[in-house]
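[Meeting: bench + compute handoff]

Bench side (C.D.) handed over the final construct sequence. Compute side (W.E.) agreed to return the predicted structure before the next meeting so the bench team could plan truncations. Sequence as handed over:
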Amino acid sequence: MGHPPNSESGQSSKSSSDPASGGTAPGGKRPLEFWFLTLFPEVFPSILGSSLLGKASQRGLVSYQTIQIRDFSTDKHRTVDDTPFGGGEGMLMKPDVLHAAWSSAIERSALSRSSEGGRSLTILLSPQGRHFDQEMAKELARYDRLILICGHYEGLDERFIENCVDREVSVGDYVLTGGELPALVMTDAITRLLPGVVGNTQSLTEDSLENDLLKYPQYTRPREFQGKAVPEVLLSGDHKAIAAWRKAQREERTRERRPDLWARYLEKNPPKPSRKKR
C-alpha cells in the first residue's frame, strides 16, 4: 500500500470512539482520530480514559485507537526487530512489520472511508525531530487524523520513515525508552485545544505560552497563608487594574524565567518609542 496523501494536502482516515463507525462530533464536525502504533498498548487506556481526555472521547470529540505492532509480525516468535546492516549497537524495528501496522490504521480509519476527505499526518516520535510546542499543538489540532509511531530499540529502518512518516517530532533534548510518553504528551496538548473540550475557552487564551508569555501568578482562599497575603489589586474589584497587573506579571515572569520567549515576544511587540519632552 502506498503512502496516502498527507499533511498539507492529504485525504485521510476515520473517527469517533469506534473509528469504524465514522460518527461525527456534536455540531457535525468529524472527531479527530489519534492512532498509536506501539509495542505497549497497555500504557494508553488509563491516561486517555481520564480527565478531559476521557470526557472528550465520551462526547465524540476525539477518538483514540492503539495498534499493537507485534500483531503484524509474520514469524512464530513475533519478531519486530533485527540487527542493523553494517553493524552497530542495538536493534532496529523492521520496516515490513511497521508498514503492515501502519497500513492497518489507514484501512480501519473512518477518514479513509469518508467521501468528504480530510487531513492526515503520520508522526514519528523521535529525538531527531522538530521540537513540539504550543504552536505545533494548535496546527495539529486542525487535522482529522494523526498516526503516532512510538519507536523503540535503537530506532526504525530508514525506509519506513522515508515512505510513511510525514514528520518527526521531539518533546525535548533527551532520550526516553520509547515513544509512548511523548505521544501521550502531544495528545494531551492537542486534545485540549479542540472545540468543546475545555469548558471555559477564555482559559486557553490566558495559558502559559500564549502570545509568548508565561501565566501570571494566581491565588485562592485563604486570603493569607503562612504570612503571605493575596495581592490587594486582586481584591479590589477593579477589572481594568487587575488586567493591567496580570499583564505586567506575565511580562516580568517571562523576562526572568524564559529569556528565549521574552526575546520572541519583544520581536513581535517592540516597545513604543518614548516621546521626548521639549
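W.E. noted at the follow-up: The mean pLDDT is 89. C.D. will use this when planning the next construct.
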